[in-house]
From TrEMBL:
Name this polypeptide is given: Cupin domain-containing protein
Cupin type-2 domain residues: 30-82
Organism domain of life: Archaea
Organism (species): Haloplanus rallus
Pfam families from the UniProt entry: Cupin_2
Length: 100
């Protein structure tokens, strides 16, 4: 079965699950300007964050990466992650289980 939606149609703030209860875990993250997600980690996962619109400061461990719309960050979930929106932002994040 095929389903088609826009990112804006997905329910949930700031996180909306694209494929609830399915792998890889895929979420839309929407943040207002100066809004952030507290530092956390996702052990055992590889993460891809695609910034659809806006600008964020992505804190990964002890480093900060500035991302603008259209950029992609790929990283391991063991490190602490905390995105902060510089301006209203929307990202699509895929959290894939790491294959051994």
């Amino acid at each position: 079965m095929t389903t088609i939606h826009t990112l804006d149609e997905l329910d949930g703030q700031p996180h909306a699950n694209v494929f609830p209860d399915r792998e890889p875990k895929t979420v839309r993250l929407s943040l207002d300007a100066d809004e952030s997600v507290p530092a956390h980690s996702h052990p055992g996962r590889d993460i891809v964050l695609y910034l659809v619109e806006g600008e964020i400061e992505l804190q990964l461990g002890d480093r900060t990466h500035d991302l603008t719309a259209g950029e992609i960050a790929r990283f391991e979930g063991e490190q602490e992650i905390s995105p902060r929106a510089v301006e209203p932002s929307v990202a699509l994040i895929v959290l894939a289980p790491r294959s051994e």
